Sequence to fold (281 residues):
Amino acid sequence: MSNPPNPELLSLNTATVRERWNLRRTIEGCARHGIRGISPWRDKLAEMGAKEAAKAIRDNGLAVTGLCRGGMFPGADRRARQAAIDDNLRAIDDAATLEARCLVLVVGGLPPGSKDLAGARTMVRDGIGEVLDHARSAGVPLAIEPLHPMYCADRACVNTLAQALDLCDELDRSASGALGVVVDVYHVWWDPLLKTQIGRAGDKRLLAFHICDWLVPTTDLLTDRGMMGDGVIDLPLIRSWMEEAGYRGFHEVEILSSGNWWRRDPDEVLVTCRVRHQTAC
Ligand code: ZN
Fold:
């Protein structure tokens, strides 16, 4: 058994408490519970305003481990694709205002009515290519998050770490740090190549580490994620691979759980996150 992780590296993805707390309450909750990182979603950020949120986050001494999310590049026509590009440029600006360590990209699936998966993947590559210069000049690394293949049609047609890293190789050959990946255990824990691909990514391209657990059985494809320790993912093992590859960043808890954790008092959820980070990660 490896040593417990540094408690200072715990971060909270705001989706974990999104049903009960707005962004301001989440920022204050993190500070109150000694959680040093936060990763907001854009809907909550828009409610509060990016400048106001940036100030509250700074005042409470938190690091922004990511902004969720950009992406959704494929579109049925030119106009839809351009709208996605414009939205990503705005997301990059918001991430810069927050001094976020990355903008998380959930790249998008098939356009409505389409069966052209290869075409959708080309649109993803081209879309990231179009916004990369803006991200670079704003100082916001783009982090491609491969999603579990069950989301291929409607959320993300990038489904493995290898596929995400191939995109990085193609668009940012020199591994400048402007483009990398998110390793979210929920999406990639099953992958037989996970260890190799984490090693391949290395510290330049490992931009974020999202943690939760895979419940057996899983009763909802989207909102039945488990608390760390309640499922079948070997979290200490995957963390050890991240560390061997040079990752020194935060461990961001992201739990979408309509039947359980979203119903609980968020203060209880945050206490549980802190304990499980030490005992199960
Ligand atoms: Zn994630």
